[in-house]
Design a protein that fits this description.
- The structure holds two protein chains of two kinds.
- Chain A is mainly α.
- Chain A folds into two domains: 63 residues, no CATH class; 200 residues, MetI-like fold (Orthogonal Bundle).
- Helix content of chain A is 75%, strand content 0%.
- Chain A starts with 10 loop residues before the first helix and ends in a 5-residue tail after the last helix.
- The chains are: A mainly alpha, B mainly alpha.
- Chains A and B meet through helix 1, helix 5, helix 6, helix 9 and helix 10 of A and helix 2, helix 3, helix 6, helix 7 and helix 10 of B.
Chain lengths: 292, 312
């Protein structure tokens, strides 16, 4: 996993793009909020700077300015205890827990199904096409139904959301693991046969290590999917806790800034998840002497 | 020879026994019914094993089809046999009935969600991503700055912007199309940028020896070389677009659309319609994916993944 470093570094171009986005954001906020701001300002005060200042500090803007989002986030984090639903970190923790549980579920299921497909040719022939075809189906569409049905069965709380997140990330993991478990060196497989190694031994000593190079890229996809799954699964539960619930509540009551805070935090969650996967990948590579 | 005979006879036997068991469910004595169930299971298992060694196209297609039928059949028998409440899980036959009963509603939902939000959003998002990738192609500085930004954005839960888009563009289909544009833009940008770097040094030198300029190299060499990656993004986006439109409708929509139908009918416990809508979504997703895959085959026939000998 070596990446070539282009001359001139990465920080400067990224900083330039970031600055461009910020400028566009502030300009967009003025553009979108100006009609509302104009109505609020007394007539005659229509200087451009006054208008801009007013559109960056509105209560319910069409597009809040970045510092408003940061301020609301900071206020909710520092003015409330961590267990209070008014603290955004509380909602982020709820969604993070669902994401993590779903990821674990998807990982276990995905690896189990992939191992079965590798082991039995019949399963490969009959099940694998459905696994691939199911990638083209908008699985998220059934999320609210699953939540409602599980709710009818009396199952609420963490599990329904984790089930949807897990179901979403199950497919990329399965597909990658099927390729990965097949990626073992044929010569090494022959060697194992000359040692008269059993199926379990071949799996543990040869196929599993060979598949790790496929597992981590699929995990990165799976993390992003699991976050989406957890957020969408929170929508139909009557908006109790979690970033998705917060987003829906914000959209019902027109609290634009709250919606953006939830949005920023859900992006942060995805980025943190990606960083976590990368960290584990580094640790595994380090343990195995710099190779994957 | 025996395997071939088994492979062609057993599926027929399995389907016949399965249909008989379904017909007998609740009418016949338990022993006769169980016999048919056992015959179905045994015949299907035997057929799947017999088909596993086959190499012809029919045998390759028969395996997954038979497996799918088995799943549908088991679903139907378990739901009806155990008298599972239709509020939890409707039988496939009930879904089929709901499909036939609500044909018009489903068609109207499909028109609103798929032909407006999805197709328009998909077209705009993919074209924009492609155009931006071409536009920043000549500036390594912009490419290096936008690259990490774009890959970051494609990992983000973009469906979460749906309520904001609804605020900006109203409750109608344009807000859903906007979510689809955002969802499809970044994968396309990332893939096209990566694809434009695909052409090898040898080919570049050949173009240089022909004194080909930037645009000739782009059109004759780099865009064709980028096609496999562009098609990967197009295929991925066809699914993402449908998901984006359906999920955006969960946040609020006028009185129609597939996401709206799923959310409201699930809340009203009418799961037959929900499953019928999901079937429509699955069919639409698979068919559009298949069409793009066919187009890919026609346009990138030279690519090694399609030239590989059959069966490898």
């Amino acid at each position: 996993m070596t990446e070539e470093r282009p001359a001139g570094g990465r920080i400067l171009p990224f900083a330039a793009v970031f600055a461009g986005v910020l400028i566009a954001w502030y300009a967009g906020a003025v553009l979108l909020n100006a009609p509302q701001a104009k109505a609020m300002l007394p007539a005659g005060h229509a200087g451009l700077w006054v208008l801009a200042r007013a559109s960056w500090t509105m209560q319910r803007p069409e597009l809040p300015a970045p510092q408003q989002i940061l301020f609301t986030l900071g206020h909710s984090v520092f003015a409330n205890p961590l267990t209070s639903p008014r603290n955004f970190l509380y909602h982020m923790a709820v969604t993070a827990k669902e994401t993590l549980a779903g990821l674990l579920l998807g990982l276990i299921l995905g690896i189990a199904v992939a191992a079965g497909i590798i082991r039995w040719r019949t399963l490969d022939r009959s099940l694998m096409p459905w696994v691939i075809a199911s990638q083209t189906v908008p699985i998220l569409a059934i999320a609210p139904m699953v939540v409602v049905v599980l709710g009818n069965l009396g199952i609420t709380g963490l599990f329904p959301k984790a089930a949807i997140a897990g179901y979403l990330c199950f497919f990329p993991i399965t597909v990658a693991m099927v390729s990965g478990l097949r990626a073992a060196d044929p010569l090494a497989l022959d060697l194992m046969r000359t040692y008269s190694a059993g199926n379990a031994q071949v799996f543990r000593l040869l196929r599993w290590p060979a598949s790790l190079g496929f597992l981590f890229p699929s995990l990165r996809v799976a993390v992003a999917l699991a976050v989406v799954g957890a957020i969408v699964a929170e929508l139909p539960t009557g908006a109790v806790a979690g970033l998705g619930a917060r987003l829906l509540a914000g959209s019902y009551y027109g609290q634009t800034i709250d919606m953006w805070v939830a949005l920023v935090l859900s992006s942060l969650l995805a980025v943190l998840g990606l960083a976590g996967v990368r960290l584990i990948e580094r640790l595994v590579i380090a343990r195995r002497g710099g190779r994957l | 020879m025996r395997r071939r005979a088994a492979a062609s006879a057993l599926p027929v036997l399995a389907i016949a026994a399965g249909l008989a068991a379904r017909a007998l469910l609740g009418h016949a004595p338990a022993s006769l019914f169980l016999l048919f169930v056992l015959v179905t299971l045994a015949a299907t298992a035997g057929a799947l094993f017999a088909l596993a060694g086959g190499t012809s196209l029919a045998e390759r297609l028969a395996s997954p089809l038979l497996f799918g039928l088995l799943v549908l059949w088991a679903w139907e028998m378990l739901v009806l046999g155990l008298k599972v409440s239709p509020v939890l899980l409707p039988a496939p036959s009930a879904v089929a009935v709901a499909f036939a009963d609500h044909y018009r509603t489903l068609a109207a939902d499909f028109r609103l969600t798929y032909l407006h939000s999805v197709v328009i959003g998909y077209a705009i998002g993919c074209c924009l991503g492609f155009a931006v990738a071409i536009a920043i192609d000549r500036s390594p500085f912009l490419k290096r700055g936008l690259g990490p930004f774009a890959s970051l954005m494609s990992a983000m839960p973009i469906v979460a912007v749906a309520p904001i888009m609804i605020m900006w563009f109203g409750f109608g289909w344009p807000s859903k199309a906007a979510v689809v544009v955002l969802m499809t833009f970044f994968p396309m940008l990332v893939s096209t940028t990566a694809g434009l770097a695909e052409a090898g040094a040898m080919e570049h030198e050949l173009m240089q020896s022909y004194a080909a300029g930037y645009s000739a190299t782009l059109i004759k060499l780099r865009l064709p070389a980028a096609l496999p990656l562009i098609f990967t993004a197009l295929k991925l986006n066809s699914t993402l677009a449908l998901i984006g439109a359906v999920v955006a409708e969960f946040f609020g929509t006028p009185i129609g659309g597939m996401g709206f139908r799923i959310a409201t009918e699930a809340a009203r416990m009418d799961l037959g319609v929900v499953w019928a809508t999901i079937t429509v979504a699955a069919l639409a997703g698979s068919i559009s994916f298949g069409l793009i895959a066919l187009l890919e085959r026609a346009m990138t026939f030279w690519h090694p993944s399609f030239r590989a000998p059959a069966g490898s």
